[in-house]
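Give me the fold.
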Amino acid sequence: EVQLVESGGGLVQAGGSLRLSCAASGFTFDDSAIGWFRQAPGKEREGVSCISSHDGMTYYADSVKGRFTISSDNTKNAMYLQMNILKPEDTAVYYCAVGEYYGCSPYSGLRPYEYDYWGQGTQVTVSS
């Protein structure tokens, strides 16, 4: 059984930082896309960033470029999202996800339907 468990969310002031972690079990990151998504109240789930476990290429939504950094440790089956210069509009539930087919590239990796496995989410709240 594949399980993804996020941690590291919390309440932070604007301008602050948080590091989210995602631990995977029942699955290895070989040749898959690993992504972070977020969903704010009343809004659709949106892709934040993805990383290819195959070649390490990363891609980001324009709204987080330069502030967020995605990384993974395939030896630990873990991935991370370092979030800096947080803004109130970053407030959302953040999810990690793994996809086996579409990959992470300039053309794929930031759409929810491209992913097969999801964590339960962790709340990030940024106060102004």
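The first strand starts at residue 3 and ends at 7.
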